[in-house]
Amino acid sequence: MRAEQELLEAFVKGDIFAMEQMVDTYKDDVYNLCFRLTYSRYDADELFQDTWLNVIKGASGFTDKSFKNWIYTICINKYKDIYKKEKRRKSIVSDNYRDKDSKEHAMSLLVSDDNTEKTVEEKFVSSMLMSKIELLDDKFKVPIKLFYFEDLKYADIAVICSVPEGTVKSRISTAKNRLKKMMESELS
Amino acid sequence: MIDIDKQLEKLEIRTIKPDDFLVSKTKSRMRTMVKRQDKDRKKKIRKTMAVALPLAAVFVLVAAMFIFMGKGGSPVTAESVYYTIDINPSIVLEVDDSHRIISISCKNEEALDLMNNIQCLGMNIKEAIPIIVAEAKNLGYISDDQENYVLIAHFGEENGQLNEEEVNKLVYDATGGEANVLYLMGSLKDKEEAEEKGKSAGIYLLEKYAKEQGIVDEGFEPDNQEGSLREDMEALNIPVSNLTAETEDGKLILKWDMIEYGEFSGYKIVASKTNPEPEYPGDGYIDYITDRETIHLEIVDGFGGLEGGESYWFSITALYKGGFKSTGNSVQAAVPLKVEPTPVPTPEPTPEPTPVPTPAPEVKVTSAITGSAGESGVELSWEKITHSNFSGYKVVASKTNPNPKYPDDGYIKYITDANVTGKTFLYSGFESGVTYWFSITALYGDGTKLAGNSVAIVMPGDDDDTEEATSEIAGYVDGDYVMLSWEDIDSTEFQGYKVVASENNPNPKYPEDGYIKYITNAGTTELAVNEGFSGLKGGTGYYFSITVLYKDGSKVPGNAVYIIVPDSIPDGEMGASAITGEVIGGNIYLSWEMIDSPAFQGYKVVASPVNPNPKYPEDGYVKYITNANNAALIVYDGYNGLTGGISYYFSITVLYSNGTKVPGNAVYLEVPDTDAGSEEMTATTIYGEAGGTSVNLTWDKIYHTRFSGYKVVASKTNPTPKYPEDGYLTYITNPNQTEYSSSFSNFDDGETYWFSITVLYNDGTKKAGNAVAIEIPVGESLPAAEVLGAITEGKVVLEWNVIEHELFQGYKVVASKTNPNPKYPEDGHIAYKTNYEDNRYESAVEIFDSGETYYFSITVLYTDGSKIQGNAVALVIP
After folding, report:
1. Mean pLDDT lowest for which of B222-226, B579-583, B794-798?
2. How far is B474 from chain A (nearest CA, A)?
3. What is the ipTM of this complex?
4. Where do the domains of chain A lie?
């Protein structure tokens, strides 16, 4: 496999083989993000394809230092476009998820190994927290997910979300406050 | 209490993988898209005579981007979309499906001059239009002392193109509202037809539009084919409205013909004491009637400021959408004096007659209105006025005044028939979701206007009950920039964000504190500003805030943040420019030092007959140049107000983006007193030879007051080539530039070309000079690469000979499943190597289709543009 830098240079110049190698390199990361945004296999598949097609369209303009950040940005922007259209069509969100299957998928994302020491209560709180995250506005939800689910740094999230780093910190802080209030309100 | 950090960190999320089928399908779609993009790119790449602008560094020539010059049309593809801008400069912009400009065609010299000063390639059309229009204003094509027209037309598929409102706003913002804007939509067929007829596509569409609207006759052809848009508009000869005037019952009554066709806008009733042919806007107006059917006006003493007993010239100017206007005949008539009632003598006592009931005296009254929101519109009704001196009902509507009246709030309908006491106004004339107040102002023949009650009616709107929210702003300093970000507004009523900055007001808001940026995209919620941005001063603190504008006119300010704008432009980088000048023949040749500063904004060329240290703005300017590399100017008798025989102090004031203006030295020169046109306009003599790698041409300089430029012409067939018949290679407007070189790769090896110069003068004269014949040498045989290939340890491995040549540029590794002799660019490439010693390629076999035979070759690229294809090897992928 060619070095990533060489692949990137070839990719920017329109080398389809290099592009396909980039797909192989980043497919898991990108798909994870797609699923954690949509909680639907079907929608994640669509978002995955749309993301890579937009990568092709924008390849010649790629000047970022980090390919991963760049593709995450494309994915999130595409997700927001889809989500906004869905909102306008007033799609029904059941129990904070897009549909029942989505909820089950989301819950299945939580590692639930019977050998773990997690109590029933801990699992309950975790699942509630997951559902409350979905209640947040996109501008808070996305940074929270990127920080806690994707383990990205503030600087990378700033690039992906196209906001200053200070704004990322501010939004994550605001999101946590809101989640805390929602959780305490429900649990009390 | 929940420890939310801990809870979030405890969440253990699985990773989830895409299935193989999804990945294969994605790759397949990507390959299809790349192929389609290549095909589209090839369609758009055209070989052309590159316009060698004196400031070539400003323009970047990339594979799919060229600037065209000339009346010829660009080939139209099914996917092409064009915008044309006609002011006097006439420009055609081709855009891609992201609305970015990918090619620019200048249809006249003025357009070329304009585009010389700005760079729009790759820019979104929404950004480019105001830049182009602003530059046109800068160059004087739009000014406040004339009627200005901007015609913008769209040709091609309707897919996300600009709408009329957007175009109007872009031009309005760029011109300060000083231009009439007309936005037309045409098809690619219209564009082709225009090009066949040798017309500007925009003007062609304008004529078609005018005919369709009935503004001009079907058979109309404008006399002026080559002139400016203004001249074309004036030449359209729109019919006018015939006016008569008569006096009746102490009133002057004007009557005119109804305008029955076209997108009528209104009648301006014009009156002048002194001008026998008054017209709007030059002579103002006394009344503006938007109702097409209202074709009379009663004038009494005091109406519209007219004085009783005085005689005026009256006329009607009819207005149409897009700035069309036509003024009809004028009539002279006197405004009747107001007649004071004569005193009635005291009657002699008479015997008391038998009482007879007397009629009650007439009282002027208002008309009470009622109304409601009907199915299709606002339904209004009002009380009938029965007064004998009743003149008419003015139906008034206001969004802001709960007690509207005429004339303060205008009117939407004027009804002279007293029996008409109701009307329905369609919702399409009002803004959705907005409350309007309606009332009736009753008019009487003596000029009395009585406004009645009002009724408030809410126009039907969206079901969304969106609050008009503020937007919270945050900001911080990052290097030389202040980074601002704010909350986005998600509302159907959203109109825009005004970014406001104030040095002194801790709660700044628009419009009171102005604004530094206006953003109409709700999703754009950040802005980076620095010293010089919209006048911000470095080292100075500002309160920044966002005022959100809504469609109903509301302006909702948010919080403010105080941030000091970094001082980013060192003083040393804001220098003056030293000027020199010499008088040669009938011209003064001025030149000055080029400024190389990131903060550079423009040169103001200043001339003063009295001030030995002239500077802008105090002494005005004769020319404003925004291109830093354009540091020369020729002036002469009559140039922008300069008078022959008078001496001037000439200087340059350099403008910087932070608002600083730095004047330089002055030179004192007398403008030659020439009788323009008396100097002979001559051709020039050209000399040329074949150099090492290029054709080198030189010619004699032209000194003439009317010099416009040199066209360098080349022809393989005509031994006496000239412009325009033989086209041109390049156009040079700098009289001092008298040499030009062109690489052999631009010509055919072994052929003889004749080169000549055609001199252009600013009165349209063209003088072709002699020609020189130059044979293009046959190129040396550049080496190819011989490739060997094999499948080894699961990899495709290719090796070839190293090419050591002074013109070497790179190796393109080409692969094809179908072409046994593949080459670049026709078959694309899978790798590109620019190191001449890097003569090996290897790749895992998995990236190729297993079981297929691929043909591999190397195409060597050379810096003279040559592409030498080598042999091919066939390998079967296991």
Report:
1. B222-226
2. 8
3. 0.80
4. 1-90
State the Cα–Cα distance between residues B91 and B112, nearest whole angstrom. Answer: 9
- Rounded Cα–Cα distance for residues B151 and B92 (Å): 12
Q: For the CA atoms of chain A, what is the radius of gyration?
A: 18
- B474 contacts A166? CB cut-off 8 A: yes
Can you give the pLDDT at residue B19?
A: 83
Angle between helices A41-58 and A16-38 (to 10 degrees): 140
Residue B76's pLDDT band, with cuts at 50, 70 and 90, is: very low
CB contact under 8 A, B474 and A53: no
CB B268 within 8 A of CB B317: yes
Whether B713 shows a pLDDT value over 90: the answer reads: yes
Q: What is the rounded distance in angstroms from the CA atom of residue B376 to the CA atom of residue B397?
A: 17
What is the CATH number assigned to the segment(s) A1-90? 1.10.1740.10
Q: Please write the tens of the pLDDT for every residue from B282-340.
A: 788 888 888 877 888 999 888 888 888 888 999 998 887 656 677 888 888 999 887 65
What's the CA gap between B574 and B664, in Å, rounded? 12
What mean pLDDT is predicted for residues B772-798?
Answer: 87
The CA-atom distances, in angstroms, between B345 and each of B193, B342, B348, B350, B359 are 81, 9, 9, 14, 22
Cross-chain Cβ contact B847/A187 below 8 Å: no
- H or E stretch at A56: helix A41-58
Proportion of chain B above pLDDT 90, given as a percent:
22
Which residue, B739, B744, B737, B740, is CA-closest to B774?
B744
Interface test with B, best of A6, A11, A15, A104 (most B CBs within 10 A): A15
B482 CA: distance to closest CA in chain A (Å): 11
CA–CA separation, B497 vs A71, rounded Å?
29
| Strand order across the B264-272 sheet | B287-289, B264-272, B311-320, B325-334
- Confirm if B833 and B798 have CB atoms less than 8 A apart: no
Residues 128-167 on A with a CB inside 8 Å of B are: 129-130, 139, 144, 148-149, 162-164, 166-167
Closest CA to A150 of A67, A28, A54: A28
Mean pLDDT of chain B: 80
d(CA B482, CA A16): 40
- Verify whether the Cβ–Cβ distance B37 to A19 is below 8 Å: no
Instruction: Give the confidence band of B167 by pLDDT, cuts at 50, 70, 90.
Output: confident
Which among B798, B855, B864 is positioned nearest to B823, based on CA atoms? B855
pLDDT of residue B37: 66
What's the mean pLDDT in B346-372? 68
Average pLDDT over residues B257-263: 69
Burial (CB < 10 A; 0-12, 13-18, 19+), residue B874, is exposed
Residue in the block written with tokens 């600037």: B67
Radius of gyration of chain B (CA): 36
Pick the more confident residue, A110 or B370.
B370
Residue B468 has pLDDT above 70, yes or no: no
Instruction: Specify the amino acid at residue A99.
Output: D
Determine the pLDDT at residue B42: 53
d(CA B698, CA B701): 9
- Report cis status (omega within 30 of 0) of the bond before B407: yes
Distance from CA of B840 to the nearest CA of A (A): 13
Residue ranges in chain A whose pLDDT is less than 50: 1-2, 88-100, 112-117
Return d(Cα B417, Cα B419) in angstroms, integer.
Answer: 5
User: How far is residue A44 CA from its own chain's centroid?
Assistant: 10
